[in-house]
């Protein structure tokens, strides 16, 4: 039965969009040339330019950073978010770790170099308050979206990303970070599979399907 159905599909269904690869060459070469930078680099550069020796951020591609716990994954995410937003890209930062309030105080500290505990407590000078006010004014102008949800999963990640992309608000995607958010007691094999499915959704359903560059983070085990 299945062979008969497959043969019917072969006989009667045609895909007019499939053509010889050679006919794509001119268009592909134009795309490649358009992604070159004046300094001889290609694509969207990482904030730390030395990393461009190994990769740059490409539309449709996902870069995954990995590190042990408390080794600065979110610091890298925040640095890249601000760097890309400053360049004019619409940055979407989906977060499993930091609520808006915590993200905001860390962001202010990062941008002003005023220690976070002093920002929270109000123990800053009059001049530092002026710096904070100017920084907050600047943050308001940035095309940056930060959404916190400790239970991000494949479905709501992809749905929300597509909604934002359709509204023209997604040029660069950040997810901090890939982990099991189900809250269920699962075996190591089930957890491994779930992490793979989540990473696959970010890579293919968000970055690949929407043709945007993305970065995510994974925590090494002990």
How many distinct helices?
A: 8
Biggest sheet strand order reads 1-5-4-2-3
Our Rg estimate from Cα atoms comes to 22 Å
Note the gap between the termini: 52 Å
Instruction: Extract low-pLDDT stretches.
Output: none
Please, could you describe this protein's structure?
Strands 1-5-4-2-3 form a five-stranded parallel beta sheet, with helices on both faces. The chain is built from eight helices and five strands. Helix content is 48%, strand content 13%.
Write a brief structural summary:
With 222 residues, the chain is of the alpha/beta class.
Keywords summarizing the entry:
five-stranded parallel beta sheet, 8 helices, alpha/beta, 13% strand, 222 residues
Secondary structure: elements and pairs:
Layout: H1 2-12, H2 25-34, E1 62-67, H3 73-86, E2 91-95, H4 100-112, H5 116-121, H6 126-141, E3 144-148, H7 154-166, E4 172-178, H8 188-210, E5 214-219
Parallel strand pairs: 1-5, 2-3, 2-4, 4-5
Helix pairs in contact: 7-8
């Amino acid at each position: 039965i299945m062979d008969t159905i497959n043969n019917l599909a072969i006989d009667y269904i045609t895909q007019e969009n499939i053509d010889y690869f050679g006919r794509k060459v001119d268009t592909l070469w134009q795309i490649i040339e358009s992604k070159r930078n004046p300094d001889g680099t290609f694509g969207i550069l990482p904030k730390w330019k030395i990393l461009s020796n190994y990769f740059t951020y490409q539309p449709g591609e996902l870069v995954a950073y990995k590190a042990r716990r408390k080794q600065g994954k979110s610091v890298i995410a925040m640095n890249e978010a601000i760097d890309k937003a400053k360049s004019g890209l619409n940055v979407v930062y989906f977060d499993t770790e930091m609520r808006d309030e915590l993200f905001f105080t860390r962001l202010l500290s990062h941008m002003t170099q005023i220690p976070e505990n002093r920002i929270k407590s109000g123990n800053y000078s009059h001049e530092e308050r002026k710096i904070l006010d100017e920084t907050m004014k600047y943050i308001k102008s940035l095309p940056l979206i930060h959404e916190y949800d400790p239970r991000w999963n494949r479905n709501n990640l992809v749905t929300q990303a597509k909604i934002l992309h359709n509204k023209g608000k997604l040029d660069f995607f950040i997810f901090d970070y890939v982990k099991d958010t189900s809250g269920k007691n699962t075996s190591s094999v089930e957890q491994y599979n779930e992490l793979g499915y989540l990473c696959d959704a970010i890579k293919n359903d968000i970055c690949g399907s929407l043709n945007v560059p993305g970065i995510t983070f994974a925590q090494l085990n002990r």
